[in-house]
Amino acid sequence: MGEALNQLLLSKVLLCGLLLHTVSQRGLGTGETVEKKPSFIIILADDIGWGDLDVNQPEKKTNNTPNLNLMAQQGLRLTDFHSPASTCSPSRAAILTGRYGLRNGVIHNFGVNSVAGLPLSEITLPQLLQQAGYYTAMIGKWHLGHNGPYSPTNRGFDYYLGIPYSNDMGCTDTPGYNLPPCAPCVSAGPEVIRLRRSVHGGCYSEVGLPLVENSSIVEQPLDLWTLTEKYKSAALKIVHSARARGQPYLLYVALAHMHVPLAPPFSPDTPAARSPSDGAYTASLRDLDGLIGALKTASDNDNTLIWFTGDNGPWEQKCQYAGSVGPFTGKWQTNKGGGSAKQTTWEGGHRVPTVVYWPGRIPANTTSSALLSGMDIFPTVLSLAGVTPPSDRRLDGIDATNVVLQRQHTSRDFLFHPNSGAAGRFGDLEAVRAGKYKAFYITGGAEACGGGKGEQQLHDPLLIFDLERDEAEETPLRLDTPEYELVARRVAREREELLWDIATDKSVSTADYSTDKSAAPCCDKTQAVCRCYTVPREDIKTRRKH
Ligand SMILES: *[C@@H]1O[C@H](CO)[C@@H](O)[C@H](O)[C@H]1NC(C)=O
Ligand SMILES: *[C@@H]1O[C@H](CO)[C@@H](O)[C@H](O)[C@H]1NC(C)=O
């Protein structure tokens, strides 16, 4: 990385210090206290595509994300922003620690039976803000270990409401199903099924997934169709009560949207929204956008920054239940028959729609193509909160305050994309961004819609694309050009330096990926699929009436 970058980072830190100072003084003039710190809402969508945000592809004239569009119009849209990994757990771990998986230990997903989670030696963003006097709350999918010390309330959050892992991971059916099952995944009496049908247009809505509040299971199986409402009311309560206390807060909302099973709201007026052919994906996208709109309204005029982004690209094998990668189609790979989105290091796997909104602080209607990563949220938020990052460990995130607040085009010089589950070895640094170039050491495809797969392929010499000319990653640079040689040399040097830096880093953690059946969250082991109750309560009520 070298001196130059260190100097740059140092100057950024100093600059932020100055900015905060200015804010505090201005605060004094308007009767606020010197200490008034900003609040933060970080919203992470699951499996969302870059092209799902309307304003990323205006030519398509879609209108599925009006609230996000408005936030982009009143704030900043980042068009070259990347999730730190191409699957769930590694991406979330890197966002919350500001470090690559090779440092924080999380290089692939945790399972229902996982005993452990994000290594306890890692320091999380909420932990640091909590220590600085922030109220810290999380709503949604955690997926960084659900047992004992690994749960959110033991990793820096004062409050938690959500699901411990993906919404397709609680049923006895095969994970990865597209819509809540019409056939129940638990044995329930015919009466129960009939009642559910009348309520939800023919589909059984409950899966053996737990809803957790703080560290207790409060509902199991969970009704996926009421999850958005539950999340929304909990989130608004957090925002309103923190405001009433005058306490700055961090609210991390990790939505179940757009991961399958999709459960868009059911309305008697639109029964067809249940039908797979009638845009369950679009309906879910609008549902997500509505929730974000509610958060925006609740936090407007309260010195709150909202950072919306995604955890990885769309799950391409889900076909009509997967999002859009926009123009980032990874053609080199798809021409060979493999998928180029989630799980892969093609752009579709990690380039995610991102909007940063902070009325009065972020200039309206700005777009930046600065190369940034979800790991950069950690140092940037700390910097805006006036909190010093931990000095006992190396961070991979950079402080992007000047991009966010001042329209400066300060990109990362390099960004590495780790293998997250396509062909190949977990955590391997498969691809490197250097400016407009992207170089692959290893390629591999995920399962495509229709079933094709792309085998792992090693590249020596490197496979290099110019993303400015070729955003679809179709035609690599010719090897016999000075341009190729220059990029290949820079990339090789940088990768060697990073690997050396990690190899000599005493703060590297290792995750325990062991599993045990007893580690699965269960409300009552004597009940089928760990139910919290024998028969759903409303069904009992209805029965009594008859
Ligand atoms: C969770 O913690 C909050 C306080 O932070 C408390 O008000 C709430 O009752 C707790 N919920 C459960 C289910 O323990
Ligand atoms: C936002 O900026 C674009 C060009 O960058 C411009 O066409 C558009 O009119 C602007 N919108 C608003 C509301 O200022």
TrEMBL record:
Q: What PROSITE patterns is this protein classified in?
A: SULFATASE_1, SULFATASE_2
Q: Which reaction does it catalyse?
A: Hydrolysis of the 3-sulfate groups of the N-sulfo-D-glucosamine 3-O-sulfate units of heparin; an aryl sulfate + H2O = a phenol + sulfate + H(+)
Q: Where is the signal peptide?
A: 1-25
Its GO CC terms are: lysosome
> Out of the domains of life, which is the source?
Eukaryota
User: What EC identifiers does the entry list?
Assistant: 3.1.6.1, 3.1.6.15
A GO MF term = metal ion binding
Pfam family, any one? Sulfatase_C
Keyword Lyase appears in the UniProt entry:
no
Q: Specify where it is mainly localized.
A: other
Key words, A-Z: Calcium, Disulfide bond, Glycoprotein, Hydrolase, Lysosome, Metal-binding, Signal
Which of the seven top EC classes does this enzyme belong to?
hydrolase
Which compartments is it annotated to reside in?
Answer: Lysosome
What are the residue boundaries of the Sulfatase N-terminal domain, all occurrences included? 39-387
Cofactor or coenzyme needed: Ca(2+)
**Which family does the entry's similarity section mention?**
Belongs to the sulfatase family.
Q: What is this protein called?
A: Arylsulfatase G
Q: Which organism is it from?
A: Kryptolebias marmoratus
